[in-house]
């Protein structure tokens, strides 16, 4: 069976009619961002169908929000049952069980043997904003340390922590104060290409230097870090680095916040990526796949820290919506029933094997990296200089979409293919998608040569 099946030029006539209306009434910031020149009709699992009955294998997964797949039956059932009873109260007006049950289950899954509590928000950016507010209130300190390459969201505190200038930060300032940025140990692009151990040592010195030259530890509330950087291109740090950062924070009385918005909910083969590194964060931010695309995010952490914000300091009218929380409970049930952590590992192994084989003959395939199903391929023009193949990456993604595979890029230079496919993708679907991507890379490389 063929899952990727493009019957018309993209966009097809039915999609084109709706897209014409989109251009008239939808802000250009969203219109220009559309990866697929088409309008969705329906989706199930890892396959999307558009209005013209073109079908696509989805390896983007709603930018990592659909670990349990499109239109997951358990999620749909939970959403429907809750919505028939009530859709909203605001938890501070009258509480509801789905919020409480989801908080309990997520706290039980979070690393660390200490007592934990949770609060829920709408988006990953809101979770980050709230974590910073909680950290500042608990420590009574203001400074926050973040990293080059980081992506934490697009609200103002989150955007201040986000690293990439375009398209996110250009002409959007001024940004929040008391934010200090240091290099993330991106081994593949570290100057002079030293070993992982050397990169770790240098990066730790740079972190310690912040407290000597830029802001004192006594004035620093938190360090916030992605255990694997997402938008920067799935950068995996040396394993010992995160442990050393956590220990330094502990020694200096600084909170250690781990942003798991993209890495959480089984993407890396464990429920939280922190588990791969033996981390026990003071606070964890979650979002994206927690509710299968419903607007839900959260902050989990040590109970005494979570309680520090005080009554009414963290929240909003719609945060922790009961329908979204019910979807979250269904996601957890699906995760356990289908053993999605194990599926993530197998997906990652297949993607890696495909591109490791291709790398033997391809001059474009540079580094293959990631953990579990969070895999990325960095494309380069030259293996020696590692010059980014940004233009070729764009061509590859465009051609993949034209052939029915939705794939998107990442990286500071836009030269990284990143995989965020639903973890319920079938073996046949993944094989077909990888075969198409391989063919496209070879064809782009052939034209280039």
Automatic annotation (TrEMBL):
It comes from the Bacteria. InterPro entries: 4NH2But_aminotransferase_bac, Aminotrans_3, Aminotrans_3_PPA_site, Class-III_PLP-dep_AT, PyrdxlP-dep_Trfase, PyrdxlP-dep_Trfase_major, PyrdxlP-dep_Trfase_small. Its cofactor is pyridoxal 5'-phosphate. It holds the Pfam family Aminotran_3. SUPFAM superfamilies: PLP-dependent transferases (SSF53383). PROSITE patterns: AA_TRANSFER_CLASS_3. It catalyses: (S)-3-amino-2-methylpropanoate + 2-oxoglutarate = 2-methyl-3-oxopropanoate + L-glutamate; 4-aminobutanoate + 2-oxoglutarate = succinate semialdehyde + L-glutamate. Pathway: Amino-acid degradation; 4-aminobutanoate degradation. GO terms for molecular function: 4-aminobutyrate:2-oxoglutarate transaminase activity. It is an enzyme of class 2 (transferase). Its EC number is 2.6.1.19, 2.6.1.22. Belongs to the class-III pyridoxal-phosphate-dependent aminotransferase family. This is (S)-3-amino-2-methylpropionate transaminase. The gene is gabT.
């Amino acid at each position: 069976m063929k899952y990727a099946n493009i019957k018309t030029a993209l966009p097809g006539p039915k999609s084109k009619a709706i897209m014409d209306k989109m251009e008239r009434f939808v802000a250009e910031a969203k219109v220009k961002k559309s990866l697929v020149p088409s309008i969705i009709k329906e989706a199930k699992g890892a396959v999307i169908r558009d209005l013209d009955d073109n079908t696509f294998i989805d390896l983007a997964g709603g930018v990592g929000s659909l670990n349990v797949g499109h239109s997951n039956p358990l999620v749909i059932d939970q959403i429907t049952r809750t919505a028939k009873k009530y859709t909203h109260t605001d938890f501070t007006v009258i509480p509801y069980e789905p919020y409480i049950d989801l908080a309990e289950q997520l706290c039980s899954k979070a690393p660390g043997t200490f007592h934990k509590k949770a609060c829920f928000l709408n988006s990953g950016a809101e979770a980050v904003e709230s974590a910073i507010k909680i950290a500042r209130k608990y420590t009574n300190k203001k400074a926050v340390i973040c990293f080059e390459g980081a992506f934490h969201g697009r609200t103002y505190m989150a955007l201040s922590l986000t690293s990439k200038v375009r398209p996110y930060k250009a002409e959007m300032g001024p940004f929040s104060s008391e934010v200090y940025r240091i290099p993330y140990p991106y081994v593949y692009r570290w100057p002079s290409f030293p070993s992982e151990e050397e990169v770790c040592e240098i990066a730790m010195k740079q972190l310690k230097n912040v407290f000597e030259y830029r802001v004192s530890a006594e004035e620093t509330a938190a360090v916030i870090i992605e255990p694997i950087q997402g938008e920067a291109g799935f950068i995996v740090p040396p394993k010992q680095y995160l442990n050393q950062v956590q220990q330094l924070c502990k020694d200096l009385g600084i909170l250690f916040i781990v942003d798991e918005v993209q890495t959480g909910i089984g993407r890396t083969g464990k429920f939280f990526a922190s588990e791969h590194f033996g981390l026990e964060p003071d606070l964890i931010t979650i979002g994206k796949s927690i509710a299968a695309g419903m607007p839900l995010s959260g902050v989990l952490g040590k109970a005494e820290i979570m309680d520090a914000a005080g009554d009414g300091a963290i929240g909003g009218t719609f945060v922790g919506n009961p329908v979204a929380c019910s979807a979250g409970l269904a996601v957890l049930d699906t995760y356990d029933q289908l053993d999605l952590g194990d599926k993530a590992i197998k997906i990652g192994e297949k993607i890696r094997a495909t591109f490791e084989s291709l790398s033997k003959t391809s001059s474009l395939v540079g580094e293959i990296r990631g953990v579990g199903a969070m895999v990325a391929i960095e494309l380069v023009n030259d293996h020696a200089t590692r010059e980014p193949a940004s233009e070729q990456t764009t061509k590859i993604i465009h051609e993949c979409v034209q052939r029915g595979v939705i794939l998107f890029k990442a990286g500071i230079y836009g030269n990284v293919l990143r995989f965020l496919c639903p973890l319920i993708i079938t073996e046949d679907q993944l094989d077909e998608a990888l075969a198409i991507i391989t063919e496209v890379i070879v064809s782009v490389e052939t034209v280039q040569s």
